[in-house]
């Protein structure tokens, strides 16, 4: 049976703009990602430059250099461009509103603690005086040596023990602008005790728990149920203790956090108005506040377009800055209080776009259709014969009602053949022919319903799409590289990186290497009403097909789990270079985690593994099971595997074959 859908695709014209609309590239990729005239995904370098980097060219260069896949590509220029955009947005808002204090951004390193990312953030943000935020002892220790300028802020959130607070005070004694933020009453008691012991009065901040609640995937962590922060009564008690202890003028920072991905501008303004009222009240009580840190929450559009819901955004970066600056100024002006130095912690917006995961497709598992050589035996069961008759009918011209009738009858007969086989009345060969006939019918009927462009779409259309969706085995682990997708349903835009000037005529579900049914992508960003599959091109035998996963730069790098002992993937750091042939150069190559490194993390030590394997091989040699040279060769083969990647070595596999 000719695969009708693919034949139709070859006859149909298809444009790059149609692919951009299909994969919603402008929604999640603007202003960085687009599809170029070759039908390849490309990255604009930002900053008003017209130059771009072809992602296919980066992949080809990585393959030429022998870099193993899956591969994480870091476009470092995007970090710089996002920091520029963020600071320019606040500068514009401050200038237009007459806000009398400056803006100072800090980067929360929990969003992506990787050394190369933090260094790029600090380098790009140096001209803006960009600081850091830490939330743990390890993050504090990582951040302190990077405070080269005494004006550079380090805001310290999270739970703090005696050792951590002592180190923060020590940093202040060195002249560093380190501000421990009091999250709980006990933290102030510890800080006060240390201050008295050391005879040094430190600067501190306080985090307030707002009543405004954000409707998002993280809504349970906002509002009164927030894990961190002082309630209004706890804050007033703290102010009393500050006054009694002589610390009132040492409380320099008021902090709040609305949670990740604030979905709408109205909620943002409401929360900013609430925290500014707290700021004004504390100023009137004589508290020496200088900074107002409104936390993170600047949203990133991952492609979901339902503004005002948990999924989408209804504002731009400039609107975000305008709303914050204007709201703070309005409240302060009403109360005749000076405006604070404004701080935000926009980590997701700074880093999300810069990282792209590239995974090869290793194979496809689809539904078998009838071939031209398939002949119906003379003694075939009547149910199988009926399915073969419906195959012929499905290729003829029908109206929509007739198409739906054929589909319903085919499903009924297909179910009947399964029952007959289970009861022993149908041979295995007949069952296989019945399955192939059914899938051939479904394929033909799906094309007819798609061509009809029905509004509204009948439910049978989605059923057919789901039935005829391929499983595409990809060389990656959802649990290592996309934990937020598995854990909270966060979508990440995924699409082929080339052939985007061709119609994607098939549908695929991307599944990973893990031995887990959850190891798959369950929801896709596209213009298709049915978001449960990814539109994909037919795989070409002998050719490599790569899928790009975008907006991977926030949280996913360090939150991943080692399910099935899959480790970190290889990565390359890319910078734009107009003078180069393909307009980029690779600044750094970081190999992925080896099998040996991964095993060591779970306490399988190489020396012990070698000893145990050597003993096994020696015993087999002594027993005469294998010759000595064969046994030692097997031992060498085993030890060589320890140095390899935890992922499939795609260089030695025949790719794109049906599984």
Question: How would you characterize this protein structure?
Answer:
- The chain has about 650 residues and is of the alpha/beta class.
- The protein has four domains: about 25-75 and about 355-365 and about 470-595, Lyase, Ornithine Decarboxylase, Chain A, domain 1, CATH 2.40.37.10; about 100-345, Alpha-Beta Barrel (TIM Barrel); about 380-465, Methane Monooxygenase Hydroxylase, Chain G, domain 1, CATH 1.20.58.930; about 605-645.
- Helix content is about 40%, strand content about 15%.
- It is built from 23 helices and 21 strands.
- The strands form three sheets. Strands 4, 13, 14, 15, 16, 17, 18, 19, 20 and 21 form a ten-stranded mixed sheet that branches. Strands 5-6-7-8-9-10-11-12 form an eight-stranded parallel beta barrel, surrounded by six helices. A three-stranded antiparallel sheet has the order 1-2-3.
- Helix 8 (about 160-175) crosses helix 9 (about 185-200), helix 14 packs parallel to helix 16 and helix 22 runs antiparallel to helix 23 (about 630-640).
- The protein is globular and about 100 Å long.
Strand tally is: 21
Poorly predicted regions: 1-11, 652-657
- Subunit arrangement of the protein: single chain
Just name the CATH architecture of the largest domain: Alpha-Beta Barrel
Distance between the termini: 20 Å
If you compute it from the alpha carbons, what radius of gyration comes out, rounded to the nearest whole angstrom? 30 Å
Helix content: 40-55%
CATH topology of the largest domain: TIM Barrel
Number of helical stretches of at least 4 residues: 23
What number of structural domains do the residues give?
4
Mean residue pLDDT: 90
CATH superfamily of the largest domain: Alanine racemase
Q: Strand pairing plus helix content: what structural class?
A: alpha/beta
Beta-strand residue fraction: 15-25%
């Amino acid at each position: 049976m000719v695969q009708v859908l693919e034949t139709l695709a070859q006859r149909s014209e298809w444009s790059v703009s149609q692919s951009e609309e299909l994969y919603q590239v402008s929604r999640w990729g603007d202003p960085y990602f687009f599809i170029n005239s070759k039908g390849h995904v490309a990255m604009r370098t930002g900053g008003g430059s017209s130059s771009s980097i072809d992602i296919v060219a980066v992949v080809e260069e990585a393959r030429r250099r022998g870099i193993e896949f899956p591969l994480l590509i870091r476009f470092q220029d995007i970090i710089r461009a996002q920091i520029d955009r963020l600071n320019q947005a606040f500068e514009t808002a401050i200038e237009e509103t007459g806000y009398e204090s400056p803006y100072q951004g800090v980067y929360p390193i929990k969003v992506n603690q990787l050394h190369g990312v933090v260094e790029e953030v600090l380098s790009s943000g140096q001209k803006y005086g960009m600081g850091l935020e830490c939330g743990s002892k390890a993050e504090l220790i990582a951040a302190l040596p990077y405070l080269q300028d005494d004006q550079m802020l380090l805001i310290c959130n999270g739970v703090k023990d005696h050792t951590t607070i002592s180190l923060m005070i020590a940093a202040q004694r060195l002249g560093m602008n380190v501000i421990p933020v009091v999250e709980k009453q006990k933290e102030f008691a510890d800080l006060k005790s240390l201050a008295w012991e050391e005879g040094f009065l430190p600067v501190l901040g306080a985090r307030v728990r707002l009543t405004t609640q954000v409707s998002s995937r993280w809504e349970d962590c906002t509002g009164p149920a927030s894990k961190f922060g002082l309630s209004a009564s706890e804050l007033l008690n703290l102010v009393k203790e500050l006054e009694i202890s002589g610390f009132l003028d040492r409380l320099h920072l008021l902090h709040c956090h609305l949670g990740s991905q604030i979905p709408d501008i109205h909620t943002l303004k409401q929360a900013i108005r609430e925290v500014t009222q707290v700021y004004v009240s504390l100023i009137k009580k004589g508290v020496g506040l200088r900074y107002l840190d409104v936390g993170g929450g600047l949203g990133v559009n991952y492609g979901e377009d339902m503004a005002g819901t948990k999924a989408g955004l209804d504002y731009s970066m400039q609107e975000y800055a305008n709303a914050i600056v204007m709201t703070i100024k309005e409240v302060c002006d009403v109360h005749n209080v000076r405006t604070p130095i404004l701080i935000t912690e926009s980590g997701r917006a700074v880093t999300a776009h810069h990282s792209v995961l590239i995974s090869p497709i290793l194979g496809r598992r689809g539904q078998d259709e009838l071939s031209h050589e398939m002949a119906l035996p003379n003694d075939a069961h009547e149910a199988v014969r009926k399915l073969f008759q419906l195959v012929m009918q499905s290729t003829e011209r029908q109206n929509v009602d007739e198409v739906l009738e054929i589909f319903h009858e085919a499903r009924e007969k297909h179910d009947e053949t399964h029952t007959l086989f289970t009861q022993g009345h149908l041979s295995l060969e007949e069952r296989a022919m019945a399955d192939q006939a059914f899938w051939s019918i479904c394929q033909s009927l799906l094309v007819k319903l798609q061509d009809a462009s029905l509004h509204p779409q009948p439910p049978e259309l989605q059923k057919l799409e789901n039935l005829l969706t391929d499983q595409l085995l990809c060389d990656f682990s959802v649990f290592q590289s996309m934990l937020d997708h598995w854990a909270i349903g966060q979508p990440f835009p995924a699409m082929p990186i080339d052939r985007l000037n061709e119609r994607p005529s098939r549908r695929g579900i991307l599944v990973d290497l893990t031995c887990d049914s959850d190891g798959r992508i369950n929801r896709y960003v596209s213009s298709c009403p049915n978001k449960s599959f990814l539109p994909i091109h037919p795989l070409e035998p002998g050719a490599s097909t790569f899928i790009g996963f975008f907006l991977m730069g926030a949280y996913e790098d360090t939150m991943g789990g080692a399910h099935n002992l899959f480790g970190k993937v290889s990565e390359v750091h890319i910078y734009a270079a107009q003078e180069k042939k393909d307009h980029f150069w690779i600044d750094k190559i970081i190999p992925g985690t080896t099998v040996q490194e991964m095993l060591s993390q779970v306490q399988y030590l190489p020396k012990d593994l070698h000893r145990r394997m050597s003993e096994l091989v020696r015993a087999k040699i002594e027993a005469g099971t294998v010759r000595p040279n064969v046994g030692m060769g097997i031992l060498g083969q085993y030890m060589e595997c320890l140095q390899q990647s935890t992922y499939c070595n795609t260089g030695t596999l025949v790719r794109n074959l049906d599984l």
